[in-house]
Amino acid sequence: MKSPLTIFPGTMRPPAHIQDPVEVLKHPKEAKKHFITYVREEVLVLNFYRTHMLYFIIVILVSSVIVYGEGLANGSTEFDGRLRYIDCLFLCCSAMTTTGLNTVNLGNITAFQQAVLAVLLFIGNVTFVSTFVVLIRRHFFRSKLKEMVTHSRAARQAVEDIEKQESNKSQAKKGGEMTWKGNTTAHNSDNQRDQHLRKRRACKEEDEAPMIKKSANVHHQSGLGTFPAPWEIGIVRRFVSYPFRKLARDRRQKKQHPYVSFDVKFDNRGRFHALDEMERRELGGVEYRARGTLLYILCAYQILWLALGTVFLVPYVYRREVVEILHSAQPGNLKPGWFGFFVVITGFCNGGLNLLNANFIPLYKNYFILIVEAVLTVAGNTQFPIFLRLLIWTLSKTTSQNSSLGQSLAFLLHHPRRCFIYLFPSKETWYLLTIQISIDLTMWVLFEILNIGMPAVDAMPTNVRVFDGLFQATGLRTSGAYIITMTSLAPALLIAYLIAMYISSFPIVMALRQTNTYEERSIGLDKGNSSGGLGLHLKRQLAYDIWFQMFAWFLICIVERHKLVINQDGFSMFSILFEVTSAYGTVGLSTGVSYDNYSLSGAFQTLSKVIMLAVILRGRHKGLPLAIDRSILIPGEDLMHKMDQEYNGYGDQKSSNKERISAQGTEAGEGILEDINNREGDKGSAESEE
């Protein structure tokens, strides 16, 4: 019998209670009852995706009212009276989703409205939202832990002790060893019995494992069947591969798991297999501490980059040549310091919005500002998973493996997707880095080659042209920053940019899907048969994306039919498709209009802007993990418990009723507390002896 969590796309059958439509119409009261039940149990149930979407919608609506009210009170009259609400809503949605499309020039709105947009950029960017998810999961973990141990006086005391230790680390280090009252003899006997069973299970698996010998004379049965090349001869291959095999063997021997006291067994996704009850308890404590360490690292990561950007950029923009460029490019009351800080925010958040109406076009020769902006763009979004793993790896190399911090860092490196959405294993991180760099280099080369003969690009000095091409390629897929108008570029390059914006999130999304701890269940594959997972993920993502973009393009073309028919300035089928793709990819690039600096969306009718809002919101959520993903499930949730049972080697056990789940959860909660307190006590005792 298949697990109720198994979902096979394309083979789903309607539930047994669904009847023939004619029969349903004959009993309207029953139909109404079924409909209400469906809405209550399916539609109104919050999951990660719906909660994420609800958070964005509420913040956008509230902030749009604030921006609109500020415009009524102190706003400029340059917008045919006052800033319309649809434009306030569009700006807030664009900022919150870090899209970067703007229907009005940001230089014409008040400083307070600009500040609101800066706040929205920060609280809506990927790093902040994912950090908030870690904080929420850690809070629910602690809440669930308290709920499970209310019956245990010792466990309640342990929770209070943990809270005291976390609030005052200096006192925790000086604290004595904490002891638990219990039957030590029974505990030791249970532990010995568990170890004995585990050894028997491991020996049985080793005995049942098939022995596979690789034949040395199979060249005629592979490839084209030709004679072997010199490098394919056995002795040559053994000689060349010896250093690599020795290095791999040394790495396997050196690979340790200091965060647990037992011998661990993983599958190809780093999942723990065949854990007994005591081992699961200990693992829960380690994972809880790792989440706390990760939370501090994420907060420090964001503060560090924002502080570095502010320190480097804000004083620099007060230089005389920069101030002259700002005042000449945009006459008015633009403060250099506020401009520099806003650039830091929009760069790290990949927001695309700029207080300069012409974006970075007036600063296309200023290498320093563009370099700082490019580094912030890379660190804040496209290379965020790479930088985060590099930071954790660096900390692990400078920290003792026997310390609590070292064990937490090791756990994060070995099991990243158990704890965080955008932290991947080593192999996937290298793949992601390679793909990201390859795409950027391709766009850079295309910029230099395809723009040969284009007047706006040929007018640039060679060194400026090469550097600006690299800057444009770096921020193409997410930031929306640009140093030249899109209509000045070669048509073929615009098509390349369109494709790059369409696949902007694919590298990270595919890494998310492939490293999902529950990947087989999430896409409907049998366990152990996930070879086609990447292709299936890719097809599903393409199907998820393309129909919505095409439908939105179709609707906007209907609404803007008159402007398309008369060939109004800036309007064409391609320019609208470019705008929709940029919105869905949360990029922010636009072909714009010739008579102003705002995006093409600024010339849309109100209904088209509403359609664009839907595109932006859906595009911001396209890169979220699947519903069955351990990095977003709430600790203690029934679904998470069932999936952990299955992948820990207990999937064949059918006793998954709520009473047993509750009992097992209580025991696990007490074990987690026991592990945390024992380790903290051992640490305090060791320091006291020193």
Automatic annotation (TrEMBL):
Residue ranges of the region described as Disordered: 160-209, 647-690
Transmembrane segment boundaries: 53-73, 85-104, 116-136, 294-318, 338-356, 368-392, 430-450, 481-503
GO molecular function: high-affinity potassium ion transmembrane transporter activity
Compartment(s) of residence: Membrane
Organism: Tothia fuscella
Amino acid composition bias (Basic and acidic residues), ranges on this chain: 676-690
Entry membrane topology: Multi-pass membrane protein
Protein name: TrkH-domain-containing protein
One Gene Ontology cellular component: plasma membrane
GO annotation, biological process: intracellular potassium ion homeostasis; potassium ion import across plasma membrane
Entry keyword set: Ion transport, Membrane, Transmembrane, Transmembrane helix, Transport
Main location per the UniProt record: membrane
